[in-house]
Write a structure and sequence with these properties.
Blueprint: E1 23-26, E2 31-34, E3 37-38, H1 39-45, H2 48-57, H3 63-75, H4 81-89, H5 96-107, H6 119-144, H7 158-167, H8 173-185, H9 193-202, H10 208-219, H11 227-238, H12 244-253, H13 271-287, H14 291-307, H15 316-326, H16 334-355
Antiparallel strand pairs: 1-2, 2-3
Helix pairs in contact: 1-8, 2-16, 3-6, 5-6, 5-10, 6-7, 6-16, 7-8, 8-13, 8-15, 8-16, 9-10, 9-16, 10-16, 11-15, 13-15
Bound molecules: coenzyme A.
Length: 380
């Protein structure tokens, strides 16, 4: 049977591409689970490092397993010296996502064996990638600011160590916890564009560094990882809580989208934004409110009142950008932070794909010409 243009599903929207046991979403009920555990429980009880283990191996770790995993993550924060030289050679004016993608691919060149059927070797690659991402993001930020690199601190977990390497200051407990929870919330989200990219590349039996660098490329686009940057720009543009009403009227009249609202899957409030909002409140209560936060709260109220009936509620990007800005993280590092978290999901999908692999090979509907006459160049 010939496939016709009408058979195409743009963006493969709603087409199941794989069986997965990693995460689950019910967009009508506002449910997100990792390996069957509710996201709110994990945010409350767990840590990003423990959640990474859960995603990778399918079960919560024992105390001994977690201790071993943590210590291997800390050992693997030490990158080959040439990785730092590579970071220093990159143009500081470039985007940190491009730096991260280039460095992730380069990191794979230090992994000589390509035998990922060897479970120990596959585990080591996952640990190396999880450990390296925060180091690379922080190192690039220091480099472009003309500052020395800050050595990772083995006493600190992933989130706190990232803030330390980024700023050279030990983060306060609440700031570290808030970032840790943000990493938990971003660690996986079913078959999104970067995860699909990861699985397509995995299906060719490419190595996990290439899988992650390809997923990083997909995450770079503004339709995927970049929305939280745009939330911040929007809130600054609005100017303050008093300007929200008039600004929103203008947006609705011109049918413009409001950044950080709406979701392809969630038609109620994104459960991740509920958690981040509560943490944002704690953070702003402790460190002092800002016009951006007050504007955001006012905007949420007004948008939900006017567009809630259409299923338009804040998504995770609405509060993540606000939280990161309060932690003094540069705006263009928001998507790299997303990547620091999502690498846990990509690697879990890599493992799952390899267990039952078939190379992705969709079809197409050819709509070009046929049997065209070749004209020699001088006749064109
Ligand atoms: N602001 C205002 N209206 C919105 C909206 C938003 N952010 N998102 C959706 N809508 C409206 C649409 O205009 C449409 O209205 P209509 O039925 O009167 O035409 C209706 O809601 C359905 O919109 P649709 O574009 O079909 O929703 P979607 O599920 O395809 O889109 C997004 C989902 C995420 C692409 C979309 O909500 C969006 O662009 N949001 C802003 C960007 C963002 O925050 N992205 C991060 C996502 S995690």
């Amino acid at each position: 049977m010939t496939v016709q243009a009408k058979d195409i599903v743009p963006g493969l929207a709603g087409i199941p591409a794989a069986e997965s046991k990693i995460s689950y979403i019910d967009g009508q009920k506002g449910i997100l689970e990792y390996r069957g555990y509710a996201i709110a429980t994990l945010a409350e009880e767990s840590s990003f490092e423990e959640v990474s283990w859960l995603l990778l191996y399918g079960e919560l770790p024992t105390a001994e397993e977690l201790a071993g995993f943590r210590s291997r993550l800390r050992e693997n924060r030490q990158l080959p010296e040439r990785m730092y030289e590579l970071v220093k050679s990159l143009p500081g004016a470039g985007h940190p996502m491009d730096a991260l993608q280039a460095c992730t691919a380069a990191l794979g060149m230090y992994d000589r064996s390509r035998d990922y059927d060897d479970t120990e070797h596959a585990d080591q690659a996952c640990i190396r990638l999880l450990a390296a991402m925060p180091v690379l993001v922080a190192a690039f930020e220091r480099h472009r600011a003309g500052k020395d690199f800050v050595a990772p601190d083995p006493e600190l977990d992933t989130a706190a160590c990232f803030l330390w390497m980024l700023t050279g200051q030990k983060p306060d407990e609440l700031a570290a916890r808030v970032l840790d929870v943000a990493l938990i919330l971003h660690a996986d989200h079913t078959m999104n564009a970067s995860t699909f990219a990861a699985r397509v590349v995995a299906s060719t039996e490419a190595d996990p560094y290439t899988v992650c660098s390809s997923a990083l490329g997909a995450l770079t686009g503004p339709l995927h990882g970049g929305a939280n940057e745009r939330v911040l720009v929007m809130l600054k543009q609005i100017g303050g809580p008093d300007q929200v009403e008039a600004w929103l009227e203008g947006q609705i009249a011109s049918k413009s989208k409001i950044m950080g609202f709406g979701h392809r899957v969630y038609k109620v409030k994104d459960p991740r934004s509920v958690i981040l909002q509560a943490l944002a409140r704690q953070l702003f209560d402790k460190l002092g409110t800002t016009p951006i936060y007050d504007t955001a709260i006012e905007l949420e109220d007004k948008v939900v009142a006017q567009l809630g009936h259409k299923g338009i509620y804040p998504n995770v990007d609405f509060f993540s950008g606000i939280v990161y800005s309060k932690l003094n993280i540069p705006v263009d590092c928001f998507t790299p932070i997303f990547a620091i978290a999502r690498v846990a999901g990509w690697l879990s999908h890599w493992r799952e794909q390899m267990k039952n692999n078939r190379i992705f090979r969709p079809s197409q509907v050819y709509v070009g010409g046929h049997e065209r006459k070749y004209a020699p160049i001088e006749q064109r």
